[in-house]
């Protein structure tokens, strides 16, 4: 998942790799590598396998994955390590952490490592939507690795029960509301037993909300990361739609909807449609005991979703040899074949068009067409909200969204307050 899927939870596990019985060259370059996962499980096993495979092919490089907690915990640890002088050589951190890492002088751009024609082709091979959060000021600061968009999942059996075509997801905001009304069920006492739709709002509500604000025709921040647009009338319209699903139409749970329990509610048929990351695709495929569909998010004035997820970054304080070794690993793990396999194993969007041309991905998509939905949505995707002082600026919006969803402020006032706070924080960067 990205921060938002399987990677939430308990304390960090520090993991290092050893290959038994293979003597390491004394001059091996050690590359420590922060990876955002909070608990052991399938993802750590995959990363461990990649590291071992890379070491077999590159015996002079020793890779040391360190499982550093959630994305939020990992960026804190990476910056703390940078300030104390011993940061990991490379880290997978949110694409939206780019401005923060630049402002802290913690990373170097990749451009100086891109030397050959082959390197240049590789750098040009990623989906343009993912590079929007990876490049600024004419330089490339992050390399896309585990990236996602928000998609709609629906329960085909519940659609059938409600008299809806199980093969036809809602294509517009109006249809989404209409379907949700038909899919909401109450018991004899008037208590809801099945919600029509659920859009999570805990943790990072701004990310899900960016689907709605994009569909309303708004962009939340400028490309330079020094101005936000939170109080734009189109943004207010988007928040009003979300609030109305719960407070007016009563087809969406009231208050704050938990990120982590939303897929579980879907599996337990407590909700018929949910918005969540494409990074949950493998989770849903493994755990839904019913036929389900995956679709692009419904359109308002337009279609749209933010991209999300993590990029590789290179530490400024690593030695040139370590940086070169890390660059070699990042190039290796993002080849079309490996990007395709990572997408198949996790549900993340494979980061390059070439990954979708590989035999493995073509066979997988033929067997499981929902794997292509997130890729097909990329032409409608926008950069995830990212600014200088990113955590504080997104917190201002998150607080506003939660105030509106819990009914403590009307949407317009909540967004005006969020914009005023963002202005205060970003003024020095203009």
Q: What does the overall shape look like? A: globular
**Total beta-strand segments:** 13
CATH topology of the largest domain: D-Maltodextrin-Binding Protein, domain 2
Q: What percentage of residues falls in helices of 4 or more residues? A: 40-55%
Count of DSSP H/I helices: 17
What is the name of the CATH superfamily of the largest domain?
A: Periplasmic binding protein-like II
- Low-confidence stretches at least 5 residues in length (pLDDT < 50)? 3-25
Oligomer: single chain
Q: Tell me about the biggest sheet?
A: 11 strands, mixed
By helix and strand content, what is the structural category? alpha/beta
Order of helices and strands: EHEHEHEHHEEEHHEEHHHEHEEHHHHEHH
CATH class of the largest domain: Alpha Beta
Number of domain modules: 2
* Measured distance between first and last alpha carbons: 34 Å
What share of residues are in beta strands?
15-25%
Q: Compute the gyration radius: what is it?
A: 22 Å
**How confident overall, as mean pLDDT?**
92
CATH architecture of the largest domain: 3-Layer(aba) Sandwich
Protein name: ABC transporter substrate-binding protein
Keywords: Periplasm
Subcellular location: Periplasm
Pfam families: SBP_bac_8 (PF13416)
């Amino acid at each position: 998942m990205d921060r938002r899927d399987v990677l939430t939870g308990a304390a960090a596990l520090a993991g290092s790799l050893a290959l038994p019985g293979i003597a390491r060259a004394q001059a091996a370059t050690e590359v420590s590598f922060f990876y955002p996962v909070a608990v052991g499980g399938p993802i750590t096993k995959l990363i461990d396998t990649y590291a071992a495979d890379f070491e077999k092919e590159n015996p002079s490089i020793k890779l040391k994955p360190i499982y550093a907690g959630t994305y939020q915990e990992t960026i804190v640890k990476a910056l703390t390590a940078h300030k104390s002088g011993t940061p990991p050589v490379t880290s997978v951190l949110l694409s939206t952490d780019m401005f923060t890492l630049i402002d802290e002088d913690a990373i170097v751009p990749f451009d100086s490592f891109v030397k050959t024609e082959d390197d240049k082709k590789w750098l040009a091979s990623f989906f343009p939507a993912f590079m929007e959060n990876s490049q600024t000021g004419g330089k490339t600061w992050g390399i896309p690795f585990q990236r996602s968009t928000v998609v709609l999942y629906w329960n085909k059996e519940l659609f059938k029960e409600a008299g809806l075509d199980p093969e036809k997801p809602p294509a517009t905001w109006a249809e989404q509301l209409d379907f949700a009304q038909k899919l909401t069920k109450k018991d004899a006492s008037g208590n809801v037993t099945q919600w029509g739709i659920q859009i999570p709002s805990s943790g990072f509500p701004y990310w899900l909300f960016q689907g709605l604000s994009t569909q309303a025709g708004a962009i939340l921040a400028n490309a330079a990361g020094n101005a936000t647009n939170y109080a734009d009338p189109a943004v207010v319209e988007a928040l009003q739609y979300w609030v109305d699903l719960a407070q007016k139409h009563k087809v969406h749970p009231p208050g704050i909807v938990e990120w982590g329990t939303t897929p579980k509610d879907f599996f337990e048929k407590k909700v018929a449609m949910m918005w969540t990351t494409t990074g949950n695709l493998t989770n849903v495929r493994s755990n839904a005991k019913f036929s389900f569909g995956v679709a692009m998010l419904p359109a308002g004035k337009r279609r749209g979703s933010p991209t999300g997820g993590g990029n590789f970054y290179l530490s400024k304080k690593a030695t040139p040899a370590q940086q070169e070794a890390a660059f070699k690993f990042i190039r290796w793990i993002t080849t079309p074949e490996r990007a395709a396999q990572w997408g198949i194993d996790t549900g993340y969007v494979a980061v390059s068009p070439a990954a979708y041309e590989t035999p493995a991905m073509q066979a997988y998509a033929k067997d499981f067409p929902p794997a292509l939905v997130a890729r097909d949505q990329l032409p409608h995707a926008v950069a995830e909200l990212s600014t200088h002082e990113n955590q504080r600026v997104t917190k201002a919006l998150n607080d506003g969204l939660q105030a509106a969803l819990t009914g403590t402020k009307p949407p317009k006032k909540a967004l005006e307050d969020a914009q005023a706070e963002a202005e205060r924080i970003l003024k020095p960067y203009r």
